[in-house]
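so my prof wants the structure for this chain in the C-alpha cells format not the other one, which i didnt know existed until like an hour ago. anyway here's the sequence
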Amino acid sequence: MKFDKHGVLGMTKMNYDPARPKAENPIKIQDVSLRDGHQSIFATRGRTEDMIPVAKMMDNIGFYSIEMWGGATFDVMHRFLNEDPWERIRILKKHMTKTPFSMLLRGQNVVGYRNYADDVVEAFVQRACDNGIDILRVFDALNDFRNFQTVVKVIKKNKKHFQGTICYSLTEPRMGGETYNLEYYLDKAKQLEELGADTICIKDMAGLIAPYDAYNLIKAIKEQTDIPIHLHTHFTSGMGDLTLFKAIEAGVDIIDTCMAPYAYRTSHPAVEPLVISLLGTNRDSGLDINKLADIGKEMEKVIPKYKHFLNDTKNAIIDTNVILHQTPGGMLSNLVNQLRQMDALDKLDDVFEALPKVRKKLGQVPLVTPTSQIVGIQTVNNVLFDKDGEEFSNITEQVKDLCFGLYGKTTLPIDKEVQKKALKGYPRGETPITARPGDLLEPELPKVKKEFKDLAKDIDDEVLCALYPVTGRKFLNWKYGLEEAPEDVKPKTLEDVQKEQELVSKALSGELTAKKVKPANTKAFDVYVDGEHFNVEVADPNAKQMGVVVKKKEEIAVGDDTGNLVAPIPGMIIEYKKKVGDQVKAGDTIVVLEAMKMFNNLDAQCDGVIENIDHKAGDSVAKGAILCYIEPQV
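here's what i got, hopefully its the right format
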C-alpha cells in the first residue's frame, strides 16, 4: 500500500527493535526536564540531589542535548534552595559525560532581569563555558540582537555552540497582522544567520504558535537558510503536541520535549508519545521507549517533594487565557500571585483588560522574561494606583529603563507621553538613547570585587554577587557558614512528605485535635486539603528551637500622613537610599522595594527628618509594613 507523504515526513517499514537502523532524517530531541520542565510546573525548585539518580540513565538515551541550566535556575538555586548554581553544572557533568549540556541565556540580561555591563556578561559566559556548558541558547526579550554582541564573542572564542533565538510573540490569536507576521520572523532569522548562529531557535515561551503557523514558519525559514532550526514550544495552550508534529513535517531539525513526569500543563509536550508516533517514518527519533519509561519511573519517586508547587487549582491542564490574552503561563501566575498578596484578586479581569493597552504603549514588546514582568507589574500598578483618569501614576524603575532604551529597541515606538512621564528626573537623562545599551554601562566587576572582597572566594562568587548583590550576599553567608540557612531553604525529604500526607489523612478523618500548650520544638508543614492551604505545626524532637519575632499589630500599619512610609505592596527591600538623621523632602526616594523581580522607588510623603528605619536590605516585608518614620517639619 502506498501512503501519502506529509511534508518531508514519509512512511517507512515499521520496526519496533530498540536497535533499529537510523532513519533517513531523524528528528533530534533536546530534553528540557532538568531546567524548563521543573521551572514551568514546580517553580524551578528542582534540586540537584534529585537529578543525580536519573543523570546516567538520561545520558544513555541519545538525546541531541540536555538543557539543565540557565533561565530562572541561577536565581532560584541560590535564593530559595541554598545551592551554588555553578556547582550543579560540575556535579551533573560527572554523571553525564556523553550528552552536550545546554543552557538558556538572556543575552545582555545574562540570567538576571536587567542589562549588565559587558565585563559582567563576559565573565559569566566564560565561567559557564569553563564549568561545562556546551550549547548556549541566547535570546533577547526585545529581539534586539545588538544585545547578543558581547555574548557571542565569548561563545565563539571558546568554540562553543551559539544558538541564536527568536522570541515568538503575537498581538492576535494567530501569526500575522502588522507586527508579528511571517516577514518579521524571516527578517530576524536572517539577522541571526549574519551573526554567525550555529542553529536558530524559535522560542515560543507561551505555547502560542499554532500547528499550521509553525509549519509555514519552519518551511519558510528552511527555504531561506541551511542553518538547522530548533523549535521550543510549551503545552500551555494545549497546542504543543500538534505544533511539534506539523513542525516535524515541515522539516524542523530539533525539538524540545520533557520526560512525562515533567511534561504538559505550562511545561512541554512529553517525549514518549512522540517517540512511538514517529516509528515507521523517515523521521523516527531512534530513541528507546523502554529506557524512557525506566527514567520516568525513577523520576516519579522524587516528584512528591515538589507537588505542592503544582498549580492544580483547576482540573484543566491547558490555559485558554494564553490564547485569549497572549499571556504566558508564568506571567499569568505572577499576576495572580501579586494580586492575591495585595488582597486585590478581584481586579484580575481589569488587569487582563488593561494589559494589551499597557503593552502597546510600552512598544508592543514580546512577553518573555524580563519584559513579561515589566509589562505585567506595570499593568497591576496602573489598575491599582491610577486615579481620576491619570495613567502610569506609579512607574517601576524597569519601565523607566525600558523607556530610556536600557533594554534595547522596542518592536514599536514607545508612547511619547508615557516615555516623557517615565523619564522625568531620570538619573541618566530625559532623552532616550538609540545606541546599544551595553555601550553606556560602566564596568561593574571592580566595584563588586571591592564590596565583596571579604566574602567572595573566587570569580564564580563574584559573578553571582554582580548579578544578585542582595540575595547573593545572603547565600554566600550561608555557603561559608557565617549565617545559618533558614529552614525554608533546606530540602524537603520524602519522610517530610509522608508526614504531611498522614496529617492530611487525619484532617480528613477528623482525628486532629488541638492542644492548649504548644510544644517547644515544632516543625511547620504546608498542607493542602481539597485545594485549601493549611499551615500545621507538629512536635518534632529533632527540630531546632528558632526565635521568631512577632510584630505587634500596630507595626503592620497602613499609610497615613504622620510620616510613616509604608510598603504599598509586598516585596523585598533592595536598599535604603537614606539613613537615620537625614533631612529629606517630599518626593525624595527613601527605599527601593523589589516586587516580582521589579524595582519600585518609594518616596517620602512629607518634608522632615528620618527618625527610625525598621528594616534592612534583604528583608521581606508585607503590604502595609512600616519601612521608616519621617518626623514631619512643621
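also thought this was worth mentioning. The first strand starts at residue 28 and ends at 31.
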